[in-house]
Write a structure and sequence with these properties.
The structure holds 2 protein chains of 2 kinds. By secondary structure, chain A is α/β, with parallel strands linked by helices. Helices cover 34% and strands 27% of the residues of chain A. In chain A, the strands form 2 sheets. Chain A has a 6-stranded mixed beta sheet, sandwiched between helices. In chain A, strands 2-1-4-5 form a 4-stranded antiparallel beta sheet, with helices on one face. In chain A, a hairpin with a 2-residue loop joins β9 and β10. In chain A, α3 packs across α4 and α3 packs parallel to α5. Chain A is globular and about 50 Å long. The mean pLDDT of chain A is 87. By secondary structure, chain B is mainly alpha-helical. Chain B has one domain. The relative contact order of chain B is 0.14. The chains are: A alpha/beta, B mainly alpha. At the A-B interface, β6 and α3 of A face α1 and α4 of B.
Chain lengths: 236, 272
């Protein structure tokens, strides 16, 4: 266990079928940091996140918190993080405010915080509009708002910039950097490598269910003493 | 749990599904009440009106409960809302029971509206009505909804998509409501005579539709419809042993599918 280690995944594996499986994933998450999990479609990023969040039980492997093994379905563990699913379809018949208020009530979060987060993601003025009238980007921002609401040390975001326009990708980066300044860890998945270079402290690359790289972004892009873009590091 | 139940109920109340089923159930209940009270038969035990209302209940309530329950839950899974909920510091019990309570409250409101509308029609056409019998009928309808919603939860949790949930729900409904009695009748033709009565008795408890059908008829003093050959069965089923076993069977049919749904979530198999 290194000094900065907070959460450690050790040998996590999930076997759905011979074609669909992830094997022997080990990595550590530090506090605070911005950690990017990269990889193409079907690489196993979302499955890893589902194991990390306790939605799916791993076929083998363990998760440690501060050096002690934890059950990812336990209450104490779930209180540590918030989660933004990949391409979540929010209930169309509800308003943005109703959706956020529901999730806020589950964690005992005040109405004031709900309004604050709605302003942060630029949806305060349309909070009473039914979600069926929201664009994809607006729905993605609402999903992000849901993950930004609780005061937890870890935010797990699955493809958070999907469907966001350039302005909101820019705002997303600002929000995430501010979150880190407040002492939080942000663990997010993406397939946009320029975003990783710009935002993340450390990154891991998955392909066909296996972890191929896991290091600090500075080390990854300076592999041979000269700057090498991440796409060349990962794909060559 | 209450927050989840309230949210689930709001979602269903704002969907077109419940309004559609509510309208269909109420119209049929009103029609049965109106036609059953014409010709001066009145409401007196197991008559034309109660027989028709029983058939409407046994056809529609399982279908309504299975479709609404399984489609809402599988849809929630497909849209990732359920996954998100499971990452909250909320127990799987609270999630499943909350969703069950919300669905049950919505279906219950449809049944109450349907029965209320039927009662109004009986009142306005001047039919005589035994309130206690109608309440008993209403209670059996609510039990039927409770059982089939529980099965719907299990189907919704197990199905990979809304489409699969729809298909499985329709197959389960068709098997239990339409084909089961033919299968039992067919099986009895190949059975030794002394085994037919035990087999028929067991068959009642193995299908919640038959369970409610038999108990409804017995409660309405309509045991004669079963004929003299099933006299022993009706005496036993109407006795205290039969009633206790009925209560146990309803309890198990309601609880076991919910238990299985929670177990599946705890096993982390909800996403498989």
């Amino acid at each position: 266990m290194n000094n900065n280690e907070w959460i450690r995944l050790e040998g996590l594996a999930k076997h759905y079928s011979d074609e669909k499986k992830i094997t022997d994933i080990s990595l550590t998450i530090e506090k605070p940091e911005i950690f990017a999990l990269c990889g193409g479609n079907g690489a196993g990023k979302s499955t890893l996140i589902k194991m990390l969040t306790g939605i799916t039980k791993p076929t083998s492997g363990r998760i440690f918190l501060d050096g002690k093994e934890v059950d990812p379905q336990s209450f104490d563990y779930k209180k540590l993080f918030s989660y933004m699913p990949d391409e979540m379809l929010l209930p169309r018949q509800l308003t943005g405010l109703e959706v956020l208020a529901f999730f806020a009530r589950l964690r005992g979060i005040s109405d004031g915080k709900v309004s604050e987060v709605l302003q942060q993601v630029g949806l305060y003025d349309v909070r009473k509009m039914p979600i069926k009238q929201y664009s994809k980007g607006m729905q993605q921002r609402l999903s992000l708002a849901q993950a930004l609401m609780p005061d937890v040390p870890l935010r797990i975001l699955d493809e958070p910039t999907n469907g966001l326009d350039p302005f909101w990708v820019f705002r997303f980066k600002e929000i995430i950097q501010e979150e880190k300044r407040q002492g939080r860890t942000i663990f997010f998945t993406t397939h946009i490598l320029s975003l990783v270079e710009e935002l993340a402290d450390r990154a891991a690359f998955m392909q066909e269910g296996k972890m191929h790289y896991c290091d600090s972004v500075d080390t990854l892009v300076q592999k041979n003493g000269v700057y090498t873009p991440l796409e060349k590091v990962f794909f060559k | 749990m209450m927050h989840i139940a309230r949210q689930q109920m709001t979602l269903i109340m704002r969907s077109h599904w419940l309004a559609g089923f509510g309208l269909l159930f109420s119209s049929l209940a009103v029609m049965v009440a109106f036609l059953g009270n014409t010709g001066g038969t009145g409401f007196d035990g197991f008559n034309r009106m109660t027989a028709s209302l029983l058939n409407v209940n046994l056809l529609l309530i399982p279908l309504l409960s299975l479709l609404i329950g399984s489609l809402f839950l599988s849809g929630d899974k497909e849209d990732r809302g359920l996954m998100l909920l499971l990452t909250y510091p909320v127990s799987p019990w609270a999630v499943i029971l909350g969703k069950y309570a919300g669905l049950f409250a919505a279906v219950w409101s449809v049944l109450t509206f349907g029965y209320g509308a039927a009662l109004l029609v009986i009142f306005f056409v001047g039919g005589s009505v035994s309130v206690s019998l109608l309440l008993l009928f209403y209670l059996y309808s609510v039990l039927l909804a409770a059982i089939f919603l529980s099965m719907a939860m299990m189907i919704g949790i197990m199905a990979k998509s809304r489409f699969q949930a729809l298909g499985v729900s329709l197959i389960v409904w068709a098997f239990l409501v339409l084909f089961y009695e033919f299968i039992i009748m067919g099986a009895s033709m190949f059975m030794m005579k002394q085994w037919i009565l035990p087999m028929l008795t067991a068959s009642i408890f193995l299908n919640p539709v038959e369970l409610i059908r038999v108990q409804s008829i017995l409660s309405l003093d309509g045991a004669s419809v079963f004929g003299p050959r099933l006299y022993d069965l009706t005496i036993w089923a109407d006795g205290s042993a039969g009633k206790v076993l009925f209560a146990v069977a309803v309890f198990l049919w309601t609880v076991l599918p919910v238990l299985y749904s929670v177990r599946r979530i705890k096993r982390g198999a909800v996403d498989e």
